[in-house]
Amino acid sequence: MNHPGFGIGWKNDRRPTDLDFADDIALAAEEDHICQEMTTNLGEDGAKFGFHSSQEKTEVVRTSHTSDSQPIYIGQAELNILVASY
Fold first, then answer.
1. In the 8-state DSSP scheme, what is residue 49?
2. Helix (H, G, I), strand (E, B) or coil at 39
3. Residue 29 forms beta bridges with which residues?
4. Model's pTM, two decimal places?
5. Would residue 2 count as lying in a domain?
């Protein structure tokens, strides 16, 4: 997922895009449309290798929710959104 604009701003102009955990992956994005693009790309590229994203087990975690927040989809299915609180 090496694409300008993907990921979250970090130190030294680095932009981490994902965290991998055994058979799970967490994508990181600062904007909804970037998150959607990353999710779509993961699904399309992963399908080439037999990877399948589970719509039932996939969730979007946001640090805030505003009225202009956009839904994120896998295919035609809208993903469940959780708002993290610290």
1. T
2. helix
3. 7
4. 0.72
5. no
